[in-house]
Amino acid sequence: MRPRVRLIVAGTLVAATAAVVLPAVIPPLHVAYRAPGLRVALEGAASLMAATAAYIAIGRFLRARSLGPLVLGVALTFLAAATFALAVLVALTPAWDQALVLVVTGNLVGGLGLAIAAFVPDRPVRRPGRAMGILVSAGIVLGIVIAVVFVTVAWDGAAAALREAEATGSNRAERSAGLLSFQMYTLAAFAAAAFGFARAALRTDDEFLGWLALATTLGAFSRVCLVLFPAAGTHYIHLADIFRVLFYLVLLIAAAREVNGYWKTLADTAVLEERRRIARDMHDGLAQELAYISRRAKRLAQRPTSEGAEQIAASAERALTESRRAIAALTRPLDEPLDEVLAQAVEEVAQRTGARLELDLEPGIDVEAPAREALVRIACEAVANAARHSRASVVRLELANGDRVRLRVVDDGVGFDAGDAPENGGGFGLESMRGRAAALGADFHLRSEVGAGTTVEVELA
């Protein structure tokens, strides 16, 4: 996960822990306050967020067609149903006893589903409709079993405690052993889901899984509140309700970033397809014609009466090399690591020029696409110059990332007097490298002495 996301997670966990601990150690602080109107608005917002998160999760499954998103989507669907039942419970207080069964059942089934989604292998699903039907049916059957068990072993005690809290206006209900057991099961499910999603996020560096880990952690905190401080009547806003709404809010953030990433991927795919089309056209047209011109010019240069044929051949060869670079750049993935791009590009130049390369490239350096392309072109130009003009036996390419990204090309060739290559001159190749570095806002350094080789260095902030 990115450092910013890690900071958000750490700050949220500290604040959540403080919110749970303070009411336990400072008795005057209450965990529930009477606010009937605000409670209705809160549950309505939670219902909408839960339904939206479930809808987007199912959409993610239909797009990916894999098992993990399917289990996640079904789990969120049950949690959305439980949240809707709680909203009905608040709006229709006389029906709270029936709705409470749905709330407990939906939360426990949804929590178990999240725990499974955090650990299930992300395998492809061949029949999405059938798989979704099986999982939903299994969830309904499990929900019926849980509802029957709850009504049998926990309903009487929970109902009596809640009725007494409603009648006395207390902001905290008496502890019910049966209801406490179900809250503990739900807490364990959410805690397991948080652990599973966090582990997967750290292993895969998937930001979406990181947001899911944060959301399920908040869900677990909401159950901690209910275990420590049993909820009162439906007209009270409980600390657990705040954590539950934050749980759905973080799910919405995760879904929004996932959708944004999906559209960005579509745009990048369209751009890459267009780049490949242009590359094919260049390869089949321009590159073929340049190759033909280069071959014919080299044959003419072998005739003693052919004036300028050698220059024509050299110019065609440079143009052919440039067209090959452009084709390679157009066909590369947009997010290919800089070290891999550099290695492939300079090795192609070395093969054509006969240079022997030594590579010392630090992996994992990430720069913007324009900077990456400019650095690749500078490196290729420096390697080509070392092979053609310096008659170097070895060319060393280095890439490092300290305070700044540094690219350096060092050769052991004949070198030249650097005073003959001032900042505004010294040949088109040097001018091109300086111009590309300046366009990036990078520092360009050229060091050379006759008989001591040449060093080209670019430092990018």
Structure characterization notes:
By secondary structure, the protein is of the alpha+beta class. The chain folds into two domains: 3-268; 336-461, Heat Shock Protein 90, CATH 3.30.565.10. 71% of the residues lie in helices and 8% in strands. The chain contains 13 helices and seven strands. The strands form two sheets. It has a five-stranded mixed beta sheet with strand order 3-4-5-7-6, with helices on one face. Strands 1-2 form a two-stranded antiparallel sheet. Strand 6 and strand 7 (454-460) form a beta hairpin. Helix 3 packs antiparallel against helix 4, helix 11 packs parallel to helix 12 and helix 12 (369-388) runs antiparallel to helix 13. It is elongated and about 110 Å long.
**Overall 3D shape:** elongated
Percent helix: over 70%
The strand line-up of the biggest sheet is 3-4-5-7-6
Radius of gyration: 33 Å
Low-confidence stretches: 422-426
Structurally, the number of domains stands at: 2
This entry's quaternary arrangement is single chain
Largest sheet: 5 strands, mixed
Q: Find the count of extended strands (DSSP E, 2+ residues).
A: 7
Helix/strand class: alpha+beta
Tags for this entry?
alpha+beta, Heat Shock Protein 90, 13 helices, 8% strand
Give the arrangement of secondary structure elements:
Layout: H1 3-25, E1 32-34, H2 36-64, H3 67-91, H4 96-119, H5 128-153, H6 155-168, H7 177-204, H8 207-228, E2 236-238, H9 239-301, H10 309-331, H11 338-353, E3 357-361, H12 369-388, E4 395-401, E5 405-411, H13 428-440, E6 443-448, E7 454-460
Parallel strand pairs: 3-4
Antiparallel strand pairs: 1-2, 4-5, 5-7, 6-7
Helix pairs in contact: 1-8, 2-3, 2-9, 3-4, 3-5, 4-5, 4-7, 7-8, 8-9, 9-10, 11-12, 12-13
